[in-house]
């Protein structure tokens, strides 16, 4: 039985060592629970047998880390210069945390921002499928008052109409066709249809009235001719 107690004590000592080194909350919680379980098991066996083992007294009980959760950043603004695409993310008080807590990983067609432990929360933002390639090694970030500025270095100094390929596809899909090669009035009709479909009742009444008046004028012109 003494051998079993010694083995349990070795397990407990190792769990304590791991607990001191662990940084992830979930891992620490598991180790802390295992520590309590082993301590209870050792105490029970000692009471049953009257045996004891040399117990290394801990300096202090290590409590679980304070919990924090992660939120996704959805709002941002962007603009560009000849060399850079600049993304502005507003995070109140971000300038007050350690610079090491603001991390950005750049890839040729994406970047990922992680802001750790700001007001008890982690903040993340991932942008994939950038419109054009960037140079990760020449891209950077700056922390300003209540703002994180991400600077993506363009590989080619071309103007970006959109930030991502997805944004381009979505917006260009919604654009009315302006192709007038086959019908000179087709582009205008598509624009008017788009305005009519998206408009409110007042807009629809205005367009209907304008259409009727246009047809009436056209009829009079045909008669005069």
In short:
This protein is an alpha+beta fold and 225 residues long.
List strands and helices in order, with pairings.
Elements: H1 2-21, H2 25-49, E1 69-72, E2 77-80, E3 84-90, E4 102-107, E5 110-118, E6 121-127, E7 140-144, E8 147-153, H3 165-174, H4 186-198, H5 201-224
Parallel strand pairs: 1-6
Antiparallel strand pairs: 2-3, 3-8, 4-5, 5-6, 7-8
Helix pairs in contact: 1-2
Keywords, separated by commas or semicolons:
5 helices; 3 domains; DNA Excision Repair, Uvrb, Chain A; about 220 residues; Immunoglobulin-like; alpha+beta; 4-stranded mixed sheet; 4-stranded antiparallel sheet
The fold-level CATH name of the largest domain is: Immunoglobulin-like
| Biggest sheet architecture | 4 strands, mixed
Strand content: 15-25%
Number of strands: 8
Low-confidence stretches at least 5 residues in length (pLDDT < 50)?
Answer: 59-66
- Structural class call reads alpha+beta
Q: Output the radius of gyration.
A: 33 Å
Determine the number of helices (DSSP H or I, runs of at least 4 residues).
5
User: What is the residue-averaged pLDDT?
Assistant: 80
State the CATH class of the largest domain. Answer: Mainly Beta
At CATH's second level, what is the architecture of the largest domain? Sandwich
Question: What is the first-to-last residue Cα distance?
Answer: 117 Å
How is the largest sheet built, in terms of strand order?
Answer: 1-6-5-4
Taken together, the total number of domains comes to: 3
């Amino acid at each position: 039985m003494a051998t079993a107690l010694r083995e349990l004590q070795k397990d407990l000592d190792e769990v304590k060592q791991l607990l001191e080194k662990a940084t992830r909350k979930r891992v620490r919680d598991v180790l802390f629970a295992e520590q309590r379980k082993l301590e209870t098991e050792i105490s029970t066996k000692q009471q049953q047998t009257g045996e004891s083992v040399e117990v290394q007294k801990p300096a202090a009980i290590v409590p679980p880390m304070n919990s924090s959760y992660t939120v996704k950043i959805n709002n941002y603004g962007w603009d560009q210069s000849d060399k850079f695409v600049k993304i502005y993310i507003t995070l109140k008080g971000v300038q007050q945390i350690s610079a090491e807590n603001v991390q950005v990983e750049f890839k040729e067609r994406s970047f990922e921002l992680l802001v750790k432990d700001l007001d008890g929360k982690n903040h993340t933002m991932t942008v994939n499928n950038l419109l054009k390639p960037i140079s990760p090694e020449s891209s950077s970030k700056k922390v300003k008052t209540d703002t994180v500025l991400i600077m993506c270095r363009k590989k080619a100094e071309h103007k970006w109409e959109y930030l991502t390929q997805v944004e381009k596809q979505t917006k260009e899909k919604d654009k009315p066709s302006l192709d007038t090669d086959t019908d000179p009035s087709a582009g205008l009709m598509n624009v008017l249809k788009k305005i009519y479909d998206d408009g409110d009742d007042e807009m629809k009444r205005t367009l209907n009235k304008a259409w009727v008046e246009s047809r009436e004028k056209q009829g009079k012109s045909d008669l005069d001719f």
